[in-house]
Structures are given as C-alpha cells and as structure tokens.
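Note to self: keep these together.
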Amino acid sequence: MTLKISDLPELPDMMILEETPEMIYQRWSNRAVAQAKERNLPPPDTEQGGFFYDLWYPIALEWAENQELLTYSLIQAFPIWADDEYLDAHGWAAGLLRKTNEEDDPYRLRLLDQAFEEEGSGRLKDYETWALKLEGVGTARGVEKARHANSIDLYLADMTGQPITTDAAAAIRLQMEAYRIAGHDLQVQPAPVYSLLVEAKIKNASGDLNKLAATIQTRIQNYAAGKTTLAYHYLSALVIVDVGEDYTEVKVNGGIEDIQVPHTAILQVKVVLS
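Structure:
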C-alpha cells in the first residue's frame, strides 16, 4: 500500500476546542443570567464595561488560549497530524528514525506505510521498506521475479526525487546485504526517468507564459503522484489556468493518448506553452 498526503484524514471539527473568547463569555453570561432568574435576583450587568464583564472576559480569553493549546496537544498525539519533534517521537516509538534533512510529510508517510504493511515476508514490499530506511534514499520501487523466480530489482531515487547515481546504487546494494534473504538475487539500480512533455497553445494570455507553465506543471505533478496511468483528458483539463484563458492543441508526448508510466520510473514533467 502506497499512501499519499492527500489520502490522510483531515483533523475533524471539535467545537468545544474551537471557541472564541466571545463565545465562551456569552455562554457564561447566559448561564449567570439564567441562574439569577431562578433565584429571583437581578441579573448581572454583562455588557462591556460592567463589573461582570471586567471579571469574566479576561478569564474567557485565557480559556480560549488554553483550548488552542489543548488542540495542539491533541494533534501531536497522532502521527497523521504531528510535526517536528513530536513526529520524531512517534518514529522513535515505531523504530523508524528520521533521515538527515527529511521533511515531515515524507517521514510521516514512511511511518504510516510501515504501520500498514507487515514486515518480514522478505519479498518486494520488505525490500522497498528496508531501502527507504537508508540515508539518501527518497523513493524505492521494485520488481520481483523479472529475471527469474528469486530475483528482486530495486530502482531508487534520492531525497530530491532524482535517480541515484550508479556509485550510490552499488553502495546501497552493499548495505542491503544486511537485509537480503538468503537465496534472493537482489540488484539495486538508479530509477529510470520517464519524461512527460505537455504542449499547448494559449490564446489571449493575460499573464507570463513561463509562470503559467510552472503552475500547470505543479498541477500535473500532483495529479500524477502515485499513478501509472495518466488520462489524456485529465492532463488537458489541467492546462486551464485562469478564467478567460483559451487553449488549443494540447499534446502529451506529441499525441492525445493516455500515458502509461512504468512503475519503477521517476516522472519528470515539462510544460511548454506558446
């Protein structure tokens, strides 16, 4: 199972932890007025400037701030939402430490992937997980039984999404020997690059074409993450950049067909607008 950040659940609404000082003060004021009526007493002056307001509104401010702290504490209790040193603590408890310069989200996904997958079968998923534990490895995709019944081929990219060098592949292969199951023929190689060229003609462009191209490129990369089939009609729809822009002749790798990206490849996207 390969998770993406977009797969993770959002933090649910929790009204009791999202009150403003005004909401808290109003709730207290209503209760004080109701209690005074029950006791046949005159209601307190709850308007701004009154004694009741001067006494209780600062407490409402303090309570609202404490709700924010409680919300933050709750978030850090779950690796799905935790960050920084709190996420490191979840990783330590799971036996999976953060790599040098690894950002929160890639580290979070590694933690969650490990939680979803049971390690120990010694097949492809294990080897991908073991490779991702190593410094310098940002992406690990593999194929088993491609060469023969006991072959496992890993294709790796670095932390920036670029294929590792052949020297790095050789070094990682030596490190992987500590994990390799006896009898498995393991090979480690740089991930191949699959180039995706999206071309379109923009009529009446209101902005800089280079900036528009960068925006479209980001959209395509987000759409393509984790996919091996890229639908032409969806790629062409992502070329729409702003209301009023008009585009024609969208070509993807020179054609108008769906694109099949090899499972082991690193996708590199280029957008050319004219």
